Amino acid sequence: MNLGIHSTTVGDFTVTAINDGLFAPPLDIVTGVEQETAAATLVGNFRPSPPVITISAFLVKHPGGLALVDAGSGDKFGPGHGYLVPHLASLGVSPADIDTILLTHVHTDHAGGLTDPNWQPVFPNAEIVLGTVERDYWLDETRPVPESQARGKALALGSLNAYPNRLRGVTDGGEGLPGVRLLMLPGHTPGHAGWLLSSGNDSLLIWGDVVHMAGLQFQRPEATVIYDVDPALARASRSRAFDLATTDRIRVAGQHLDFPTFGHVEKRTEGYGFVADAWLP
To answer: What is the DSSP string of the chain?
Structure first.
């Protein structure tokens, strides 16, 4: 099933958005605004309520090889997900061709695709790069975990532990690859981050889960989701990302923006808006 492949250029980089699947959670995942407000905002922006949320990953062709930003959910979300590897194959790319995987964070829909059903590495030659705060948060096996989060913690440990000698942590502003720097945007998870690609005069911020629902959170950036471990900090990081994107006119992409995700943020009378890139052959 072809759920989407779309490429763009960022200087010397070629970045391909690859849709890994869709999920349709109940509206009560939304916090920070009233449910009626959330529903009305989604419908007013021509989006369904309850929402339908895209899951995407990004293939980055860089001067030294091929990288991914996030790895989708693999088999961890069940049927209707895990299209990343088949889509890579349609591009002539095998998992063995990937040299680096830059993680925004270690939730299942971003890191579940690192392993197969037997918890073996899917990408045999890849180095896994993520923020040190995020890495240490998940790998701390002494950290108490509420029962509701136990499965997520086990999935994160299984994903990272499959690459024991190929995990590299970087601090805020550190390079994952030449021209690709970590931008800390915490709150969704303690070490949640985006990756800022810069080449020549061009740039692109792949911002992870700054936005889950474009039809809601641009207009109402105060809206959070139950998956945010620190909602107030997540809101502050969203404001920082929006302000950076509007002030510096930086193009953005997001794993949960409506496919193919590339575009710009603009300030509006009420909140912000997203202006999708025009398709160019």
So the answer is: ----EEEEEETTEEEEEEEEEEE---GGGEESS-HHHHHHHHHHTT--SS--EEEEEEEEEETTEEEEE----TTTT-TTB--HHHHHHHTT--GGGEEEEE-S---HHHHGGGB-TTS-BS-TTPEEEEEHHHHHHHH-TTS---GGGHHHHHHHHHHHHTSTTSEEEE-TT-EEETTEEEEE-TTSSTT-EEEEEEETTEEEEE-TTS-S-HHHHTT-TT-EETT-SSHHHHHHHHHHHHHHHHHTT-EEE-TTSSTT--EEEEE-SSSEEEEEPPP--
Q: Write down the pTM of the prediction.
A: 0.96
- The topology (CATH level 3) of 5-30+50-208+249-264 is Metallo-beta-lactamase; Chain A (3.60.15)
Q: Residue 67 CB: number of other CB atoms within 10 A?
A: 24
Burial state string for 89-119 with b = 16 or more CB within 10 A and e = fewer than 16:
eeeebebeebbbbbbbbbbbbbbbbbbeeee
Cα gap 281→267, rounded to integer Å? 28
Predicted confidence (pLDDT) per residue in 175-223, tens digit:
999 999 999 999 999 999 999 999 999 999 999 999 999 999 999 999 9
Q: Is the dihedral of CA 103, 104, 105, 108 positive or negative?
A: negative
Structure tokens at 60: 């980055």
Question: How far is C-alpha 182 from the chain's CA centre?
Answer: 13
**Phi-psi region for residue 87, left (φ > 0), alpha (ψ -120 to 50) or beta?**
alpha
